[in-house]
Specification:
The complex is a heterodimer of chains A (302) and B (312). Chain A is an all-alpha fold. Chain A folds into two domains: 55 residues, no CATH class; 209 residues, MetI-like fold (Orthogonal Bundle), CATH 1.10.3720.10. The two termini of chain A are 38 Å apart. By secondary structure, chain B is mostly helical. Chain B has 15 helices and two strands. In chain B, helix 2 crosses helix 15, helix 8 crosses helix 13 and helix 12 packs antiparallel against helix 15. The chains are: A mainly alpha (302), B mainly alpha (312). The interface between A and B is large, with 94 and 100 residues.
């Protein structure tokens, strides 16, 4: 019904028709759009609510945290919890900047190595057929499913044998080979037309050149996604199994130690929750806009 | 017969020679793959192999492993009732949250994809945030607290549905359901992100062509155009969903306690955690891991063959 009316309208005002056709996608009814968007909005509210609640309780003064009946939003929002947290942080035995440095170093080094090594592997796995390639990839897929708890003990034995216990390498080097990055990269690179690679080769580029200047720029969305995943897992890595010197521990570990300080630190614990949560989200927010941008401009047509 | 065997080996040898030749020609490929393969083998394959090896032994880290054959598996399946509770719970969680989370991931990614760009940006963040927010799910312990301070209890008592606070996270009746809600809340993870990215890459002109060829509504378009284009991402999402669904333990341990009342919140991985990290029976824990691993592989194979039929 609505479709017919639209067509009639469009016939009376010809230029409007052009506009409409540009704006609306084919095969979409207005009613369907409306209800689906309403559904989406409702779900979005449900999804975001616990996070909003976490932030609002970090803003509550201590008496409101224990108020009965409980209120969802803070009545007198304050930043006291955060400033208390900074006081506690300042009193810690190892300076807090050291924890921050540890986390930043581990995250940056791990992500950079992972990005280079895994995309190199993914490139040949996706674009060339060589003996053992498929088998290797299947093993990677299987490894994707192996839970971290399962491999923790044998991993410790191996890292111990390498002499990496209590060094940053115990966290950084295994992160290089995270199966998820290679898997993701390979799946995206398969979408690249082989003709692109062949054309570059005919023009005289060697494999390394093809990889750096043809393949990598064309899979920007994939490697941005890869960076996000790697940063997230490294940020959340408490490294408790491998690193025992206090001055080498990452930030999340230190923060969660404050968090487990009991009732007296309820306010600070809420603040910690917010900090631990916001960092990966902010990283994602910053890189997400870039992903969407590169996606829009890097339209690849075969 | 002899002739047949001879031919078989001839063929084998020929195939082998061909692949050796191919391998020689593709030295470059191995050079590219080598750094990754080396680290991967060291930190991902070797531990798995060791795990399988330890599953046939009695190993408590202090003493050297002692070979006991299938004893671990036998006591696991026949004698360990708590393990069977764990299997039941994991199975329930996997069967309910796995497919639901997977479908939700795709559905939301697909719906978000049609929104104007700036709303889309916000929507992706909103839906993806719970899964990267670290241990924020602990906040659900405040919502579902057992006394009248809990938000859910306070609300339900206010409305008059219940007249006494319910011990949501202590009563075995409710425990698992609440864990499933929380897991579903967090299930829009990497698979979801992959779907969003993949949907952006689907060629617009295919939709227009589909419209010309008689695709009538959004659901037909989804089935005949979008889904076939999304196959690689769908496969990835499936693997992630399985990993998540079978690897549940953080949520149940944080919400229901460790150990939980009557072991009602126990999952396979919690059991593994218990034996590996509290009792240091690594052999036994490895057996659990190996079983879990087998089930995951089978599940993945089943889903892959299912996905091959999409859009046909």
């Amino acid at each position: 019904m609505s479709k017919r009316i639209r067509v009639q309208n469009a016939q009376t005002i010809p230029h409007l028709r052009v506009l409409r056709l540009k704006k609306r996608q084919p095969n979409r009814s207005r009613l369907g759009d409306f209800f689906l968007d309403l559904f989406l909005l409702g779900m979005a509210m449900l999804m975001i609510f616990p996070l909003v609640f976490a932030i609002s309780s970090a803003l509550k003064p201590l008496d409101e945290l224990f108020m009965f009946p409980p209120k969802i939003f803070a009545q007198n929002p304050t930043l006291d919890n955060f400033s208390d947290l900074f006081v506690t942080m300042g009193k810690s035995w190892v300076t807090f900047s050291r924890y921050i440095f540890n986390t930043v170093f581990i995250t940056v080094a791990g992500t950079a190595g992972h990005l280079i090594i895994a995309s190199m592997g993914a490139f040949v796995l996706a674009k060339y057929d060589f003996p053992g390639g498929k088998t290797f990839f299947n093993i990677v897929v299987v490894a994707l499913m192996f839970n971290g708890y399962v491999t923790a003990i044998p991993n410790y034995l191996i890292i111990n044998a390498l002499g990496w216990v209590d060094t940053y390498w115990a966290i950084i080097i295994p992160a290089f080979a995270a199966p998820i990055g290679l898997f993701l990269m390979k799946q995206f690179m398969e979408g690249l037309p082989m003709s692109l690679v062949e054309a570059a080769k005919i023009d005289g580029a060697n494999e390394w050149k093809v990889f750096i200047s043809i393949v990598m720029p064309n899979v920007k969305p994939a490697w941005l996604t890869m960076i996000i995943f790697s940063v997230q897992s490294l940020w959340n890595n408490r490294a408790a199994t491998f690193i025992y010197s206090e001055e080498k521990k990452p930030l999340v570990y230190a923060l969660q130690q404050i968090q487990s300080g009991g009732i007296a630190r309820t306010g600070q614990a809420a603040a910690v929750t917010v900090i631990v949560m916001l960092v990966p989200i902010i990283i994602f927010v910053l890189s997400e806009s870039q992903i969407l941008e590169t996606m829009a401009s890097s339209g690849l047509k075969d | 017969m002899k002739e047949y065997i001879r031919k078989y080996f001839l063929l084998r040898r020929h195939n082998f020679q061909v692949s050796v030749k191919k391998a020689k020609r593709s030295k470059m490929c191995y050079a590219f793959l080598a750094p990754y393969a080396l680290i991967f083998a060291l930190f991902y394959i070797l531990p798995v192999v060791t795990s399988i090896f330890f599953s046939f032994t009695y190993y408590n880290i202090l003493e050297s492993p002692r070979f006991i054959g299938l004893q671990n598996y036998i006591s696991l399946i026949l004698e360990d009732e708590i393990f069977l509770t764990g299997v039941k719970n994991t199975f329930l969680i996997a069967v309910i949250t796995g497919p639901l989370g997977y479908i939700a991931s795709f559905l939301f990614a697909w719906l978000i994809n049609e929104l104007p760009r700036w709303i889309r940006t916000i929507a992706v963040i909103v839906f993806y945030a719970p899964s990267i927010a670290g241990n924020v799910f602990v906040i659900f312990t405040i919502f579902f607290r057992g006394d009248a301070y809990g938000y859910v209890n306070a609300f339900l008592m206010d409305v008059g549905i219940i007249d006494a606070p319910v011990l949501w996270l202590i009563d075995p009746k409710y425990m698992l359901n609440i864990c499933m809600i929380v897991i579903l809340w967090m299930s829009l993870g990497q698979g979801f992100l992959s779907f969003v990215a993949g949907l952006q890459g689907v060629d617009r002109s295919q939709y227009e062509a589909g419209c010309m060829d008689g695709v009538k509504n959004r659901w037909q378009e989804l089935w005949y155009i979008t889904l076939p284009n999304m196959k690689p991402m769908l496969m990835f999402g499936a693997v992630m969903a399985i990993t998540q669904a079978f690897g549940v333990c953080d949520v149940t341990m944080a919400l229901c306690g460790y150990p939980s009342t009557d072991y009602a919140g126990r999952t396979v991985v919690t059991h593994l955690f218990d034996y590996g990290y509290s009792r240091f029976e690594m052999g036994y824990a490895s057996a659990i891991a190996t079983l879990l691993f087998l089930v995951m592989i089978l599940c993945n194979k089943a889903i892959q063959s299912l996905l091959r039929r999409v859009g046909t």
